[in-house]
Amino acid sequence: MAGSSHGHTPAAWTGVIIAFIGFCVAGAFMVMAQPLGFWAGMVIIALGGVVGAVMRAMGLGQPKQTHTLAHTAPVPAREPAGAEG
Questions:
Q1: Dihedrals φ, ψ of 29, to 5°?
Q2: ∠ at Cα 57 (56, 59), nearest 5°?
Q3: End-to-end alpha-carbon separation of the chain, Å?
Q4: What is the distance between the alpha carbons of residues 80 and 24, in angstroms, rounded to a whole number?
Q5: Is the terminal CB of the chain with fewer CB neighbours within 10 Å at N or C?
Q6: In angstroms, rounded to a whole number, what is the distance separating the alpha carbons of residues 84 and 73?
Q7: Are 9 and 60 in contact (CB under 8 A)?
Q8: What is the DSSP string of 10-75?
Q9: Exposure of 51 by Cβ count < 10 A (0-12 exposed, 13-18 middle, 19+ buried)?
Q10: Contacts of 83 by beta carbon, 8 Å cutoff, 6+ apart
């Protein structure tokens, strides 16, 4: 998975940062027992998903794969030279 640079795009980072801010806002207002602020935080969380999707549609996300990788059998590991007979 590390070779696919999964999630390392401006769209992903921006969406996650906005959603994280929304979680912080919602959590703070939940502790303060302020339902209106909590729901404002929930709206910010949803806004993070929308912003990420719009940025991906603008071409700032992970490009679509145009080909599929062929599944091959794993190559057996060889024994060290001293262990072979």
A1: -75, -25
A2: 65
A3: 37
A4: 54
A5: C
A6: 23
A7: yes
A8: HHHHHHHHHHHHHHHHHHHHHHTT-HHHHHHHHHHHHHHHHHHHHHIIIIISPPPPSSPPPP-PPP
A9: middle
A10: none
Planar angle of CA 62, 66, 67, nearest 5 degrees: 120
Q: Map tokens 């935080």 to a residue.
A: 41
What does the pLDDT look like over 50-77, one tens digit per residue? 999 999 998 888 877 655 556 666 667 7
Question: 70, 51, 71, 74: which is closest to 61 by C-alpha?
Answer: 51
Quote the CA–CA distance of 15 and 61 in Å, as a whole number. Answer: 11
Task: Select from 24, 28, 27, 22 the least CA-distant residue to 41.
Answer: 22
Positive or negative, the CA dihedral 7, 49, 13, 45 is negative
